[in-house]
Structures are given as structure tokens and as C-alpha cells.
Amino acid sequence: MGASGWIYFTPYQADSEKALADLRQHVYDSGDFYNYLARTKEYLEAVLKPESEARKEWDSMWSLSHRIPQDPAERLQVVIRQLEKQTLDTIHLHDEGSGTQGILDIRFITQGYDDIFGARKLHMKEIQSIFGTSQPTHEQVEAAFNRPPGAFGINKKWTASYFVVYRDNQPSEYCFSGVSGD
Known about the structure:
By secondary structure, this protein is an alpha/beta fold. Helix content is 38%, strand content 19%.
């Protein structure tokens, strides 16, 4: 699948760690993220349809490997049980290294530049350099994100940056932007 650059906005509050936690919970509750188990479930349900392309692919894969195939119905039941137990705190346990391709891959606020799974606050100098102002608006942030390289101040996969976005010279929201995925 490859790594994905992403951006999220969430209402401003004084505590950036709480803002991150609230954003992560909102995204998890919405289901708007790459969920490896859910995709696996969909695939296995398709495999169980005898004439489907997925079934032909499954049969071909196992015949080429010369291994005894795992019963797709049994595998589906395992995946369903895992999905039933899945929570925001455990979603990363079954993602096969692909992550969620978004903010759910970021778990804490950090001061370090390359802390895996951390979001680092951009320095005022960086914000000024990217946007030409120390108080970027939502529109300025979106316009800048759509220009390469896409993620602000990110040097490494599985990391993020964040900063305050302004409306009428007042803090309005946070922007979290990062890169994650296999």
C-alpha cells in the first residue's frame, strides 16, 4: 500500500494532548480509517462466494504455494472475533504493519523530531517559513498541504507535527499532519 501523508483539523483547546486524544477517538468512532481487519473480513466474505474473483485468487494462491490451505470460513471467524474485541487502544495489534494510514497511528505528543508514533509541535520559525505568517488560517494550511511534500515538518514515517490554526486572530483549531503506513 505504501505510506500516506494525511492532515486533520480538530477544535482548539488549551491541552494539545487532550485535543489529540479527542481527535483520535472521533476518527475511530467514525470508522474513517484504514482498518486491516475490516478489509480482511470483506476479502474473506468475497472468497466464500464460489464464483468470485477473490475465490479464484485464493485457490490459485494456495495451489501455487503447495501448502495446505487455511479454510477461509475458519479464518473469517477468527477475524470477526478480533474485530469484535478491537478498540482504539488495540487497533494497531492486528494491522500487519500497514497502520491505519492516519491519525490513529499517532499516540502521543512529543518534543522530539523523530519519535515514532509521536506528534511534535512545530516551532514558530517553521510555521512562519511554511505559511509566511505566525497565525495561519485553515485555508492557508489546506493550500500549503496540497503543495509537495505535503506533510509539515515531517522527517520520518510514523511521525506527525501539529500547530495552532487561527480564525480572526484567535486560536480556532489544531492541525495534525503526518505520514504513516507500510
